[in-house]
Task: structure prediction
Amino acid sequence: MKKKICFIISSRANYGRVKPVLLEIKKDKRLELQIILSASSILGRFGDIRKILIKDGLHFNDQAFVVIEGDTPLTMAKSTGFSIIEISTAFKNLNPDIVVVTGDRYETLATAISASYMNIVLAHIQGGEITGSIDESVRHAVTKLSHIHFAATQEAKKNILRLGEIKKYVFNTGCPSIDTLKLNKKKLKDVRDLLLGVGNKFDYNKPYILVVFHSVTTDYENSYNYAKVLAETIDKLKHQVVWLWPNIDSGSDEISRCIRQYRESKRLSNVSFFKNFSVDDYNSILRNALCTVGNSSSFIREGSYLGVPCVLLGLRQSGREIGKNVIFSDFNEEELLKKISNQIKKKRYPISYLYGQGNSAKKIKNYLAKLEPNIQKKLTF
Amino acid sequence: MKKKICFIISSRANYGRVKPVLLEIKKDKRLELQIILSASSILGRFGDIRKILIKDGLHFNDQAFVVIEGDTPLTMAKSTGFSIIEISTAFKNLNPDIVVVTGDRYETLATAISASYMNIVLAHIQGGEITGSIDESVRHAVTKLSHIHFAATQEAKKNILRLGEIKKYVFNTGCPSIDTLKLNKKKLKDVRDLLLGVGNKFDYNKPYILVVFHSVTTDYENSYNYAKVLAETIDKLKHQVVWLWPNIDSGSDEISRCIRQYRESKRLSNVSFFKNFSVDDYNSILRNALCTVGNSSSFIREGSYLGVPCVLLGLRQSGREIGKNVIFSDFNEEELLKKISNQIKKKRYPISYLYGQGNSAKKIKNYLAKLEPNIQKKLTF
Amino acid sequence: MKKKICFIISSRANYGRVKPVLLEIKKDKRLELQIILSASSILGRFGDIRKILIKDGLHFNDQAFVVIEGDTPLTMAKSTGFSIIEISTAFKNLNPDIVVVTGDRYETLATAISASYMNIVLAHIQGGEITGSIDESVRHAVTKLSHIHFAATQEAKKNILRLGEIKKYVFNTGCPSIDTLKLNKKKLKDVRDLLLGVGNKFDYNKPYILVVFHSVTTDYENSYNYAKVLAETIDKLKHQVVWLWPNIDSGSDEISRCIRQYRESKRLSNVSFFKNFSVDDYNSILRNALCTVGNSSSFIREGSYLGVPCVLLGLRQSGREIGKNVIFSDFNEEELLKKISNQIKKKRYPISYLYGQGNSAKKIKNYLAKLEPNIQKKLTF
Amino acid sequence: MKKKICFIISSRANYGRVKPVLLEIKKDKRLELQIILSASSILGRFGDIRKILIKDGLHFNDQAFVVIEGDTPLTMAKSTGFSIIEISTAFKNLNPDIVVVTGDRYETLATAISASYMNIVLAHIQGGEITGSIDESVRHAVTKLSHIHFAATQEAKKNILRLGEIKKYVFNTGCPSIDTLKLNKKKLKDVRDLLLGVGNKFDYNKPYILVVFHSVTTDYENSYNYAKVLAETIDKLKHQVVWLWPNIDSGSDEISRCIRQYRESKRLSNVSFFKNFSVDDYNSILRNALCTVGNSSSFIREGSYLGVPCVLLGLRQSGREIGKNVIFSDFNEEELLKKISNQIKKKRYPISYLYGQGNSAKKIKNYLAKLEPNIQKKLTF
Result:
């Protein structure tokens, strides 16, 4: 009987990062791939990935609607609870041998808890990293519930071991998102969705800046003000700008509200706004950007491999291991403008293997096929 | 304005352990005590504590019914999810400054998650200990979500620091359950509820053995067999026995089923069965037992202070720091019988301060009054 | 492709009543039978039917744990909500053509709502009857959500039509529980479970009285007092008594508490208490009882066909069509004693076809196979 | 002690219709007004009413986030279940004497069920009407759970009586939405929000057509196609158009998708799109429209009083009592265009009192103050 490996995909970005692993597992005769789609991955507003997934030759076994709309700390907590209820049902029906989760979002934690109480072995990708926001605590809590750890960097692996995890189940495989990057051949001019934005009409022949700005859940009350500094700055740039809507998180409504107000007063006329892109499209846009601005982890992770200059804003990623391509800025218009201008001048930084060399998927797949950890964990230092 | 300190009480045992802290906080003018009752603490089957709490001079601000009946890994996971949903509402209404949780049960984890996503400072009592069952992973996950840590032993404090928590917020206060023990003056003959059991009529003048046996969630399929070995052994004892029903956990139905079958075949006629006791009653019964048998953490924690001989069964407490009063036994009738007999001969072990000296409550209260940790945590080694 | 007919079974009593229909559907080649078990039907405390169902040659497609423990109006409401959430998932997975519900309990209403919003045709058994308790409102609300109606009596059919339902979808099929009765050949002496009760040892050779007493949800605060009058009366009877624990409802905990108190004071020594029986066992016990006392609808429904004398208590069944075998009594010890004594003298009433002649299952099955109502309903008078 | 009257407001439209009743109750010394906001009434996407409510001199006692995002029949069912869970908690905390609900949406049903199982008297506004969609069944199910009925028309009152409700608790008070209309003095030129739409810039000096189109839940698969016919037609109109986004319902995502596609291909350039208006703004826009097109019940209800010509589309309102201002059209471009053109020529129809004369609020308030129905209902014909 095949070993059943179950992935929970909770957003388009999440899908992008694990796709190479999914494809590897699908090819392996010893393994049966199970996919559960949940959270924003099946919501039109945030980039429904169901058609993309099928076009990529995969299929999903179940889907769980778990987002309690409201975009406040309260609904974020409740969505976590509701996720546990719904994901547990899916596990009951699919009966997986190993559940694999990625990252540090509330859906990750919810899945980890379902698996834990249902006595299913849990594997975690992207544990051990250090950042800001509530994601920081959640990521390490997930580590404490996981049996197998696929760290993306050497430092992350060390952190997981320091957290008392069992050495033989902790690996630095690099991040599969680098595999995704390497596989991506799409040229910018083939990213037709760049024509479907709201606002400025994107011009393929002109350079552009990429902006992604998520709220910081532990500081969500300032989301509006932070967005305002960013919008004010972006409005002053000469370049055209590609701006992605924020994740579904506490505070993201405040960011949207700010953007809407600027648009209503006819500002930000240099910006094309987008709800979501397919993984390949996003990677092309990232690869070809003059510079990135905001707080997306992709600017650090994929960005370091690509050498795209980045101006990182605020606390959300603070603490994360960064390549040379990243410089920090406060929420200060003047500082921000200057740093963007400096980064643009750098053009490209040299390639960095900090987050992997693009061969993670196969490693992860092989460990999943081979390992049989005891369901009973124990702290070991 | 007073600092609002909110306790979530989820069982009669849990209440017993934190009662001294609650009473200390109630007396402090700087603090406002909030109490939320949840899980089995408000269910008749498992020992509803509402009247006891009021008799103790306390009152509760809210109550949350969160147990999804079924007693399987699936319902345990779902109860966790449902707890998050319900506890979050209570937090919205009470708006506490600090939430305090104890131990390692699913309600503890659920509360920790609600507090985390709602940006409320979280304090944890009894973190850093090492045991078996899913409790082990859950306890450390709660540590990773907590801002303030009140460890019960020196070793537990060390473990919490090793897990990367910030030193100035980690304390060995001892366990408040030792305070409870010290305050308890109740004589066995005043424990009138010993007459209300099912089965054998308890005789106050004869020595007795105390049995508490919970299921091990990570091994819940064997619950029935383990209970059978235990029942077979207990049935052979000459002494009268006080046996408490198990916690509401995956597997506890199997244990109940086993006990019922023995009773139906007129076995276990030396046993009086009980659903629950008040904290003071339980402590008296523990203090006066010839010997304890099973896997209750009270046998280790309170038992070490009292010096009551204990035969510890199975994995649930494996790894936990134990005093000299505890010896382990396998699920083997012969071994078990022999070890019980040996322990009875020891009468009493010397007092141990392993889990505290009985002055924890005041320490914990003072730290809660004083500390103002940053809501944004960060791994630090 | 077969037409998928999905039954939701929510208790052992519910199962008993629809079993003949299930068996008929299973035999029909045009139909695919789907069974979802929910609520108390899968809870040990209330009579887990999973093994019985399999012994009966059936199997279940899904099971839903939906009971939020607490036994208060609040938890009853929440269990309804949680049922909708869980049953909806099962419908998503099973994709039935018609959903069939029975009766008037919260699980019935929850199922009806899931089906309604998911655009599934709903058939209802036992609509149109008139009783007390919240069941009364719920039953008619379910009628308004249903497309096909299988009334158990002529009067019930009339009521459904008066409620504005479409004539060609309303049938008096009689109640399938009468089919169950007719199929039952079990002799009392073969009901071995009568030996497994708590309390008095049942004697097969002596006559007995059957007591079933559920709480009235719209009057749940008096549950304890009502139970007290009943217990006081039963304690005075000379006959042995078979007493079944109440349903899982608001107020049932109060009834249990009352019974427990009587038992603790060594009263009710003529009573054997039981948690649950299989359908066949229950029907044998009902058929052979001297007299029935309480408020179970089976005393009216099956009882009228069997002619077993009944003393009906309180409001729960008030308004329901009754046969001659039923007389009412207030919660008054003297009146109750006298009426029980009078009924016993009657021995047996003549058979009544009020609730059907025992051929309902086939009729219901055929209608389910044939009918294709429009999903869009419209009030019609 | 004051009698506590609790309203559940679930959308901006719902608020608009009951506002006069809320204000009446607030003024009455015998009554305490409680308001719970839920569903889309607190979601930015659908018109958060919290600030409006406070500006109107009211305040809310609680808010419940109950929308499970997804916009499918499954999530609609689950949102109903989740609403029951959340609203029940609010009832536990507020302990109202009477709960008042309006209309026929899933939040209405959820509230009715919470109140029913929690033994709270339920009053229903807008029962007894006949329409299409699942709303039709839900409305009558709510009637069967309600104790007091405030029908909006004479025919609706008759229907409620035919459904077996008790005569002395059924009233034709007229619809409070007509009171709202009468109170509204706002001039179109003061509706500044008409400048904040997306798409065409609204011109106050030119006539306009008002479009509101909701999905039909029992036919949600055709939502996209229906929206297409409508969009195609509207695109051909010479007049400027004010188009409101649909309710949060199964199928509304499909309608949004269709609109977005038309906009992306630069069609519908005569249309200004809006997410929501305050009640007063909406009423001004309705009052001044050349003609209304779509399936909003406001076109019938408020529209008949105002005499605004309406072309009604599809089944959602089919069966509803209509004034002379309404004509029906199929989803056929040619027919639709012609009927719009004919209606525009009519200018205004005479005032109709079909849905009330604008004095409902006081009547409803007085009945709520006076009536004390028995919580135990019983079918009566």
Observations:
- Residues 48 and 200 of chain B are 24 Å apart (CA to CA).
